[in-house]
Amino acid sequence: MRLKNTFIKTLREAPKDELAKNGALLTRAGYIHKEMAGVYDYLPLGLRVIENIKNIIREELNAIGCEEVLMSTLQNPEPWEKTGRFSDQEVDIWFKTKLASGGELGLAPTHEEPMVNMLKTYISSYKDLPLYVYQFQTKFRNELRAKSGVMRGREFLMKDLYSFHVSEADLDNFYEKVEDAYARIFDRLGIGDCTYKTFASGGIFSKYSHEYQTLLDVGEDTIYYNKDHSLVFNKEVFNDEVLAEFGAKREDFEETNAAETGNIFKLMFKYSEPLGLKFSDEENHMQTVYMGCYGMGVSRLMGVIAEKFADNKGLIWPKSVAPFQIYLVGIGEEGTKRAEEFYNEHADKILFDDRDVRPGEKFADSELMGIPYRVVISDKTLADGVAEVVERASGETSKISLDKLSDLL
Ligand code: ATP
Ligand code: MG
């Protein structure tokens, strides 16, 4: 991408009401635009980050046999009424709207009900199972507070996966596969070493559900972890009874803040029973489908990664999610010409700062935007047949010969 051709501009200041570091930095660096509290637009750079996160998740889920769909945002109240969840008393974050012809609709805060309802058309026999269906979808939630930038939106992007099984054993088996896939996803996103599978409340028969908590100073959740991080509990479940169950002592745990980036639940019959999702087994007996659900906050992940790795100069993206690998600057006539040539060979991975501004301004913007490598080709570096490369994360400078530059990609 050529910076001159985009409408993107870095901003000296973030909106006054943007209190979160991730929101302020992403705004100043030209990744997002704030519409109002908890509602953001994703600009070309931000969209590339979102797509990179989605692709990592997609690859790992497809590898365990999941099928991608895209379901509707507008919700027919009917299936939700069957589980009692259309009620504002039961679910207090609904956005609802009215049809011109009369009647109420909801904007989906999650998709268990429509997913189960849809699959009633396609599941009738044990031969139709198991099924693993997921989507990347915009969810709407009337959150009371939205002060954490893109980490808590009123409109946000979630990956939601639902699994359908003939038995609890099959559900258990798939649940473990998702745990492994989640571990690979967090590793690839660059936050594997600071994201822990955490015991949380809300399990149906298994007592616990699991959350994936990423260590973060400003995270909204409080978690407790032991020395080797083999046991991590959410605040809701961290009590004497649970400690006794795991044979653990309170003094072995430390408290810290974290952000919930994903979660996984064994739902069992919670939704399939009230919605009547059944299959006929090998003996032709009707049975209720076993279910699991597995969420991940795509836009929250972007916020968490932005927040976690930033320094006083700006964002620092892990290479796997960075919108571009190289921020390219050409200085002087020959330097600019050679930069153009390098850009044209790898335009999809390079952000070429071809604006008519001082190099100092370009350098500052490259740091604010957090692109992994800044490459400068100038008449001076060309005299030695090299380009100057600065790695954003470490700040290390090196010289690389021009024919080796593409190794950075
Ligand atoms: P939280 O406790 O943070 O409100 P939740 O338990 O309501 O999360 P789920 O309904 O299970 O979350 O949603 C799945 C995932 O979607 C969460 O793990 C989180 O990463 C993300 N998520 C939830 N609410 C929001 C939000 N308002 N904005 C951005 N991401 C969110
Ligand atoms: Mg919530």
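^ adenosine-5'-triphosphate complex. The first strand starts at residue 32 and ends at 36. Residues 168-188 form the longest helix (21 residues).
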